Amino acid sequence: MNKTAIRNFATWARVTLQEAMRQRAGLLGITPSDIKEPLPASTPEIQYFDLGTGTPVSIEGPGIRVRKKLTERLLQDHDIDYGTAYRTLIENMASTWFNRLIAIRYMEVNDYFPDHIRTLSSDVSGKVDPDLVSTPFDSDLEFTTAEKQQILDWKDANQNDELFNFLLLKRCHQIGQWMPDFFEGDDDASDFFLQFSYIDPNGVVYHLVHDLPEDDFQDQVQIIGWLYQYYNSELKDEVFANLKKNVKVTKENIPAATQLFTPDWIVRYMVENSLGRLWLAGHPDDALQAKWKYYVPDAPQDASVTAELDTLKADYAKLQPEDLSLIDCCSGSGHILAYAFDVLMDIYDSQGYTPREAAQSILEHNLYGLDIDDRAWQLTYFSLMMKARQYDRRLFSRDLRPQVCAIEESNGLTKWSDMRGQVEAEQMTLEEQFVNLADELIDTFHDAKNYGSLLQVAPANYDGLLDYMQQLLNEGCNNLFLSGWLQEVAERMPQLIRQVKLLSRKYWVCVTNPPYLGAGNFNAALNKFSRKYFPDSKADFFAIFMERCNLFVKKNGFQSMITQHSWMFLARFEKLRFKVQQKTIVNMAHLGPRAFEEIGGEVVQTTSFVLLNYHIHDYLGTYCRLTDPMTQRGKENLFLSKDRRYTAKVEDFARIPGKPIAYWISENMISKFDGAMLGKILTTREGMATADNDRFLRQWFEVDYYRIGYNFKNIDEAVKSCKKWFPYNKGGEYRKWYGNHDYVVNWENNGYEIKNNVDLKTGRIRSHNYNGEFAFKKGITWSALSVSRISVRFVNQGFLFDSKGARGFTKNDDDTYYALGLINSVVGAKYLSFIAPTVDFKVGDIRFH
Q1: In angstroms, rounded to a whole number, what is the distance separating the alpha carbons of residues 671 and 669?
Q2: Residue 830 predicted with pLDDT over 80
Q3: Among 132-136, 297-301, 531-535, 658-662, the least confident range
Q4: Prediction pTM value
Q5: Among candidates 346, 349, 351, 354, which has minimal Cα distance to 394?
Q6: Contact 802, 729 (CB under 8 A)
Q7: DSSP class of residue 274?
Q8: Which residues contact 629 (CB under 8 A, 6 or more apart)?
């Protein structure tokens, strides 16, 4: 797959499509700054607008209806300014047509149209006109007599692009009958924005057909996901640029900030070792196991563990293929669900089902998906339909739908409990049961785009709610206010009920690549939500989803994810680790840095794992250590080689301070934790943050020597000296034993300027965590951030220290030199490799030697 070509096309297409959408909106009098009023010459049948071009533009008929609809959409939310609403409209229209064009391209390349006629291109090499343009009457599209004549007129006049756009819209409406949730027939607004050329070499259609090799579309539905990720890449860059300016991620930007296409081999690892394992445990099949090359067999177990596994396997043996429910609660463009479809096809085939029977059953019974991104969810829907179409030529005539949906909000809906004061009680009596259910759903899904599938909903009987509301509508109501409320709630309730059913049920398997986003970037509502419902994992999105995914899984079911690996080691995730260790870690592919081709550097380090939602005491999990290869392909090859594999029991992790997932540690090393810790003699402190290093720090040679205060024992001596600058430990490059004395800090008058440094935006003092009683004392220091081993240095008296140049202190020189030697030794480095295997060496990590 040519990812460079895919990236180049997708990023270019986004800019090009948005400009085209802006031009089309302008024809309706809708501009980036405002909605133009019709000129006085306008009538109800035809309207004129002055766009500043010298010649007024006019719209009539459908254009007037579309303008009215879009105007209502742009102005409906009073909390959003017009500029933001306009940009959202343009982005939605652009992404809608991007999705549709790449979907049509995929279908025509794979010959999935029943009439076998291409829409955007020709199957004749070198032919310019799409086959549908050349032979429209050979297609299975339906035309009226007037439309047939119009087609002939366009052909006679060589108005090929006009004909192309008419036929493309017809094709879209046809696909909408097969896949209404993807090519949604929501209104004629998106139809109005259709204006493409297949002839123009600078057009989106031309580049789609000519820039991307057809081989990349052949039975490779994942190309849809790659295109969508690259389409959003510039928006993602914008979001992260704003994060650096302390602009929090809004609910609208969560998808762009967090979407990341999972490497194919990791998807296979997760699905084969969860869904595949569930089936093989109850239905051993050597042929199936051999086919799934990323499957990791159980390690040899003790007799007691084997007996417990046998009990589980007896329960799994009762499962039929239709029982194997799997959800991806962050489904994105459907990559994981698409491969799960293939694994399920293998399972159904092993049980004697025909491909057609299996494909239909998988859509009906096996796969479920949720996401907050409407466009990404549509691609999941499309991907699963294409997988099913691969095995069933008549799929489009069967009225089957994938069981996936995008989380929608209830914003704008009024609860019945808020209506009672506005409507006379005798005018309408509602059954309390249904009132409560409807109000509960409206409450639950308010601002739901912020939380997505993190929302927890109790199972309830919603089946009668829709029928009851429809009954009320059918009976009619003389009160127009109440009738309007019933109509609006009844129209939106089916989607709310659909998503609540997916959120409230349990599944045998949950597999996902959750969003990665630190809590420091959460908006206020998301921060409040995570602290309330996920206090043990609130530090990052991925950790919160680790807890939520477990709630989706049945007892004895499987959970498989790829996350950042920080949860395995960092102190802030210790409670989460404890919860994980109450389950069974079946196996893990510890990936480390550079597992994703799209992410460079060492900061994002990942791990993929499989959990059994049941604790088997003394179970030996299998851990594949893949941290050393620095490429995605290298990690995959090492995994397949079956080298660097360890076995470990979670019970042993509990013997290590902090309970890290230190699967590679030996029993001999674990036993040493039974003795005294370095923390018995060493006190560690993080240091201070000036909040403005450019203002308060200098390198030593930038300051006049006589203004630097050296070798003071405490703060009192420093203050009395009347010096301005003092030596300052600030981490620095890798260097053992001594050195990195490069900086001085402005600590005049006991740090008066630093302590009173006010943030002009917030009015708050920005600095914090002063050195206190440890200021100027001798000790040891190290750089908090390092991509290699830790390097510890001796520091004599007279230094203040930074948050990135943490310090350790003892009561005597002998203990100081002992701590320095131990941490810098091979033994010290070995222990830190599992206590602090990230790039960040925290003060708490150092004391656990």
Answers
A1: 5
A2: no
A3: 658-662
A4: 0.84
A5: 354
A6: yes
A7: I
A8: 635, 637, 638
